[in-house]
Amino acid sequence: MTNHAIEARSLSKTYAGGVEAVRAISFDVEPGEVFGLLGPNGAGKSTTVGMLTTTIVPTGGNASLHGFDVATEPRAARALSSVVFQEAVVDRALTGRHHLATHASLWRVDAREAADRTADLAEALHLTELIDRAVGTYSGGERRRLEIARALVSRPRVLFLDEPTVGLDPRIRVELLDVIAGLRDAGETTILLTTHYLDEAERLCDRIAIMHEGRIVALDRPSALLAELGDQIVELRTHDDAGATLDLLRRRGIAGLDAFSVGATVTIPLRNRSAADAISGIEAAGVRISAIGAREPTLDDVYLHLTGGQLALAA
Amino acid sequence: MVATSPEIAIPLPAAKTSPFGPVATLARRRFQLSARTPRELVVPLLTPILFALVIAPALKTALHTSASYEGFVATGTIGLLIPLNTMFAGIGVLVDRESGAQRELLAAPIPRALLVLSNLIVAFAITALQITVLLVVARARGIHFDITTTGFVWFLAAAALFTIAMYGAAETLAARVPSTEEYVGRVPAIAIVPWFLAGSLFPIGALPGFLTWFARFLPLTHALALVRYGLLDDPTGLHGIWHMNSTAASAGLSLAVVAVFAALLTAVGVRSFTKRAVG
Question: Which of residues 210-229 of A touch B (CB under 8 A)?
Answer without folding.
Answer: none
